[in-house]
């Protein structure tokens, strides 16, 4: 039925019965992503561990935008990467004497792609997911993730 109404709208548009501006105005606009910073991820860190901030809890399931740096990836091309607040020259996951910082965000992309150099500031948008989750393919455990992520270069240090 939707296809039929689309054809009718096109016919009415072509005959001038419906102005093009009216059809464009009727299309739902994509909502702007809410901004989220690394400082806003956790409300407190106590003896029981990390507690998500009220803002993160409120934005769970919604599209958010964050700025940060890609940690060096494990592979040259992958469908996920780790977003960090500061540039990292080495992959801490690959080193036995270093750990990931608490404030990382795992970004899952819709397809494998190559990544930006570590000192490149990027803006990432995606759907915010919160809570412990283990990636079935990599075994990587995350507390906060962006799914259906996409990124754009903002600048270089």
Which keywords apply here?
157 residues, alpha+beta, five-stranded mixed beta barrel, 3 helices, 8 strands, 43% strand, globular, disordered N terminus
The value of Rg in angstroms is: 21 Å
Question: What is the typical, i.e. mean, pLDDT?
Answer: 78
Number of strands: 8
Our measurement of the CA-to-CA distance between the termini, rounded to an integer number of angstroms, reads 53 Å
Determine the oligomeric state from the structure: single chain
How would you sum up the major sheet? 5 strands, mixed, barrel
Helix content: 10-25%
Low-confidence stretches: 1-14, 18-29
Strand composition percent:
35-45%
Secondary structure layout:
Elements: H1 2-15, H2 20-26, E1 34-35, E2 42-46, E3 49-52, H3 54-59, E4 63-70, E5 77-84, E6 105-114, E7 120-134, E8 141-156
Parallel strand pairs: 1-4, 6-8
Antiparallel strand pairs: 2-3, 4-5, 4-7, 5-6, 7-8
């Amino acid at each position: 039925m939707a296809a039929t109404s689309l054809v009718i709208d096109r016919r009415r548009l072509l005959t001038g019965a419906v102005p093009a501006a009216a059809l464009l105005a009727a299309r739902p606009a994509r909502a702007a992503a809410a901004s989220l910073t690394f400082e806003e991820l956790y409300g407190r860190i106590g003896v029981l561990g990390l507690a998500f901030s009220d803002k993160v809890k409120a934005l769970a399931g919604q599209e958010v935008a964050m700025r940060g740096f890609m940690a060096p990836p494990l592979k040259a091309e992958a469908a996920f990467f780790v977003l960090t607040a500061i540039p990292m020259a080495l992959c801490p996951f690959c080193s036995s004497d270093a750990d990931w910082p608490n404030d990382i965000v795992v970004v899952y992309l819709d397809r494998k792609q190559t990544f930006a150099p570590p000192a490149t500031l990027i803006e990432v948008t995606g759907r915010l997911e919160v809570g412990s989750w283990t990636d079935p393919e990599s075994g990587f455990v995350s507390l906060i993730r962006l799914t259906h992520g996409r990124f754009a270069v903002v600048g270089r240090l």
